Amino acid sequence: MHFSPRTVGWISAALTVLIWTAFIVITRASAAHQLLPMDILLARIGGASCVVLPWAWWLMRPARRAGSSVGSLFGLSPLPVKITVQLGLLGGLMYALFSYNGFFYAPAAHASVLMTGSLPLWTTLLAWWVLREQIASARALGLLFIVLGDLLVGGTNLLKAFDGGDVWKGDLMFMAAALSWSTYSIVVRRHGLDAVRATMATSVFACLTYVPVFGLAVLLGWLPTHLMSAPWQEIAFQALFQGVGSVVISGVTFTHMIRYFGPVRSTMITALVPGLSALGAAVFLQEPMHWNLMLGLALVTCGIVFGVRQAAPALQIVPVKQGVA
Questions:
Q1: Nearest to residue 309, comparing CAs of 252, 249, 269, 279?
Q2: Tens digits of per-residue pLDDT, 201-243?
Q3: Structural domain tally of the chain?
Q4: Rounded-to-10 torsion of CA 159, 161, 164, 168
Q5: What are phi and psi of 72, to 5 degrees?
Q6: Is 136 helix (H, G, I), strand (E, B) or coil?
Q7: What is the mean pLDDT of residues 78-105?
Q8: Within a 10 A sphere around the Cβ of 134, how many other Cβ atoms?
Q9: Is residue 323 part of a domain?
Q10: In which region does residue 240 sit, left (phi positive, over 0), alpha (psi from -120 to 50) or beta (all else)?
Q11: Mean of pLDDT over the chain
């Protein structure tokens, strides 16, 4: 069955919103279980690698048979090594490290506003700096709403940093995760990367770097882990959802969305995520909805929606040649 680019773009957007919403609620709930943040990251990378590595090997099999130069990192990544490292660091390691650790300090509703909600802010600024995209006055007003919403949610915790408590640490980590993912989306858009190959490169780099480092750190006693004591069902669920769902499926759909809508419009289309995930946190996790959180959520959502309506059509960028080291 053949779908038009518009249909693929909107289907990808819907799946991305669904998975991102579930990611916030499920990951926050995981903080109450046995696995530590670095354990969840290992399960994420392991689950994704079980799908991506065989897929990447099969995808590049014709090129190997023809004697052509095949990608990088032992022929597992279909992209040049420089781009593979960029994608792997930004979308594979930094985003996950910041977000998983943030959930162990701050509520899910904070992630809804500060991580997902601030994506349009960082992406717009990076697109202006890297891609030379202009910021219209209407979009700038929408971004101002987002900044005010972020300050209402995270600013109050930062002011209490010296009074004790660790919520502000999670808020800062959520903002850092948003910056990492926004930079990843700019790299994808700048090089016009194919959705599948970008996800493969990201997962391969994360697997070849994080897994051996994690194993060595645990063996030497530098890093604590609960993998040996956690139920296998919990580990399997995290590998399936965080790895296959959040990395493979969401990685492909998000990249498809970037290619059709552009990085700024793509991150603004996620306007439903802050509200849905905050509502999910209140319903499933019994998280309280304080006045500053509700007002900040409303400002961020309005800013994102306003930016979507004012966003210009995505610029067409010629993709780079892929599969050559």
A1: 269
A2: 999 999 999 999 999 999 999 999 999 999 999 999 999 999 9
A3: 1
A4: 100
A5: -150, 180
A6: coil
A7: 93
A8: 8
A9: no
A10: alpha
A11: 83
Output the pTM of the full model: 0.83
Any domain includes 317: no
Q: Let me know if residue 248 belongs to a domain.
A: yes
Residues 146 and 120: beta-carbon distance below 8 Å: yes
- Which CA distances in Å does 105 have to 153, 220, 323? 14, 26, 40
- Where in the sequence is the domain holding 129, given as residue range(s)? 5-310
Place of tokens 């959502």: 301
Cα distance between residue 87 and residue 79, in whole Å: 10
pLDDT (average), residues 168-180: 92
Question: Over the range 256-269, which residues count as b (16 or more CB within 10 Å of their CB) and which as e?
Answer: bbbbbbbbbbbbbb
In angstroms, rounded to a whole number, what is the distance separating the alpha carbons of residues 280 and 112?
10
Q: Which of 306, 250, 297 is nearest to 124 (CA)?
A: 306
Provide the β-strand partners of residue 77.
72
Q: Which residues contact 65 (CB under 8 A, 6 or more apart)?
A: none
Mean pLDDT of the 233-261 span: 88
Asked whether 55 and 252 are in contact (CB, 8 A), the reply is no
Asked if residue 110 lies in contact with residue 166, where contact means CB atoms within 8 angstroms, the answer is no
Contact 39, 226 (CB under 8 A): yes
Over 50: is that where the pLDDT of 312 sits? no
State pLDDT tens for residues 114-137. 888 788 788 888 888 887 877 777
Contacts for 296 with CB less than 8 Å, ≥ 6 apart: 113, 148, 149, 150, 151, 152, 153
- Tell me, yes or no, whether 170 lies in a domain: yes
Q: Which residues pair with 72 in a beta bridge?
A: 77
Tokens of 182: 């926004």
Per residue in 22-36, pLDDT tens?
Answer: 999 999 999 888 899
